Amino acid sequence: MQAKRGPLKGLNPTVALVSKALVIAFLLFGVLQTDLASEAFTSLRNGIIASVSWFYIVLVTTCLVVSLWLMASRFGSITLGGPDDKPEFGYFAWFSMLFAAGMGIGLVFWSIAEPIYHYQDNPFLTEAEEPSASQLAMRLTFFHWGLHPWGIYALVGLCLAYFGFRKGLPLTIRSSLYPLIGDRIYGPAGHAVDILAVLATTFGVATSLGLGAAQINTGLNTLLGIEISTASQLVIIGAITAIAVVSVVSGLERGVRVLSELNIWLALALVLAVTSLGPTAYLIEVFIQSTGDYLQNLVWLSLWTDADQNRGWQASWTTFYWGWWISWAPFVGMFIARISKGRTIREFVAGVLLVPTLVTFLWLSIMGGTAIDLQNTASADIVAAVNEDVSSALYATLAAISPGVIGTVLSIIATLLIATFFITSSDSGTLVVSTILSVGDTNPPVVHRAVWGLSEGAVAAILLLTGGLSALQAAAISAALPFAVIMVLMIVGLLISLHRELPAKSL
Length: 507
Prior knowledge:
By secondary structure, the chain is mostly helical. The protein is 77% helix and 0% strand.
């Protein structure tokens, strides 16, 4: 399946050429027909929301339920690998890479802005800024960033690790369909599955890169007075993409792992500073209360389709998030599988699903809770900052809790954190795309890693040019749809294979 010589050496020629052709076609369309591209993205997004948003809701909830069931089931003791395989990474490095790949830029971007948006308006708020506004804001933010996205990642990653390391199939999306179509995974059907995974990954990562560029631009404006503009953001994308390419070329151990651990230390420094400078006792209470409130409302929120109301809010938030997480699933799932060989199914699901969710809740409580407290006590108008420029929410909050030198230092740390998350997201996506193109080779050719790293940056730039945040959201929702169908088949294939294995294994 891999080319033995020529410029495509080490890659599957069909998957590589078709994927590149489709990405190039998108780039040309965006450059040559910018207005038409913007209209097309909007129309496609609206069509998906109107007709299949329910499918996203059911699928994402199913992923979470199946992941939890597998963790508690008799299949939990199955090792993702051979009997002698041991985990390659310790828990700290493993969790660091999980968190950096799975959330990264998006969590930094939205951790303050989203609670403030919901604080002002959401479908369950009868009167703006009534006493329940804060609680509802945190409930909805927890819902979008909690167990559901990690359930998607856990299930896709588990499929890939199980078939790749335990069944000896290529570490690529097509292998998950082996129980359903057998050796036909090596033919046109398998090629199509991997091409869709490459496209979903490229657009999912590009969405995050676009958000990261906007927030880095705001940080540089705060610190250095650099103009906030599309041109500035394009320069930022170019510069950070170049750094990311160097990192991904250096490999998983030296590049991605080191940056992922740096992310954790920077995030820890920032969150400890905000906790100590902000309303510490209130933030602890927010964390405890919001976690309980989230768990209490988890089931009905998971199945809420807004059937009788205007779907505008759900389209902008829940449907966008579910589409974004699904579009991230090929690359995050593949990346998680790549770093999880030797772990049991129970350990894998518990680590992927529960630990990052808990850390995410803590981060949201501290950052979002601080912003809400500033607004409630009239210490700062964070609402106005968010409404003026969503990417300024983080910096407005940091400036409010500590004006002067300390606030500037915190803004520097925040900007560095966004930049390192930017790099690790690009690294992870590039490594995964290259792995898919090389039919599961965990050390894909260096030149192709570089090419796809640059491609992701180019797609992010085009999305900014063709509509900014709206285009980024449309791309995420649209890229997710074909892969969402594949995910259904992956779930069925995994369950079939696990049940076939059970009689031959003592659990």
